[in-house]
Amino acid sequence: MTGTQTRIHLFGTTRVTRDGTPVDGKALEGVKPRQVLSILALEAGSPVPKDRLAELLWDGAPPRSYSGTLESYVCLVRRHLGLRGRDSGLATVLHGYVLDPEKLPVDLTDFHRLIGPGGAGRHGCDRERLAAVEAALELVTGELLASEAYSPWAEQERTRFAAAVVAATVDAAGCALRLQEGERALSLARAAVRHGGFDEAAWRVLINALDATGRGAEALRAYVRLTELLASELGTTPSPETTRCYLDVLARNDDRSPRGSAGEELHLLLRLVRDRMHSVPGVDLPTADRGLGQLVAAIPSLG
Questions:
Q1: Among 59, 63, 78, 257, whose CB has the most other CB atoms within 10 angstroms?
Q2: DSSP summary character for residue 284
Q3: Is the pLDDT of residue 118 over 90?
């Protein structure tokens, strides 16, 4: 694209830049015009009917005479974007409006273009693919739709976005591991956990990436953190698949770890045993393992 480029940003606070410089937001005074811009940008390239815009803007209860008010909001948005005419980058279509992502690029649209439909899994495994996912992550400069912290439609978009990020980064991290790109895999896996929260697939690829980069003790600690997180937030324990992943890492580190790391490994194992026993209904922790616990505590945790 040549000439001046106007760009819409949905990561972080909703804003508009022109050739990288923020556009004065005075033309978008008020919540509703900003939300009109956000909703149209979310659906960039697809017409948004007026009645759907109204439903979202007024939380399912739009006023009877919303049409004129909505049109005034769209006029404010066009003014903010520096557009003239109804067939410009924000066009009027039958019963609605459509934002053209070719004329008005949107960071979220670019993100989805880079990761592709359905995430990374449908696009093979090569270094070009990894670069595309990494470029997509660089666009995520803040929480999606941070300006709309309490809008239900924005929260739904954030949930969908998180799922897309996790699917792409988990797949890309697995690809990086297969290509023996350990540090890239670790960076992608950490992004997956950041966006995935309780998603065990993200934690499994993190555990494997830590192990692949020689951070066996950190891999074991990651499993402990996940166990504690699931227990405290969801009242559950890791799935059999995640437990097998942990046991595989544990077995590999038994074979290759230096003797000095045994102390930390034993500390982690004892902690896991205690956590699992706490989670079993009707079972009290026995005192017979006190001697074992004192012995483990006496071993230096060198990591």
A1: 78
A2: P
A3: no
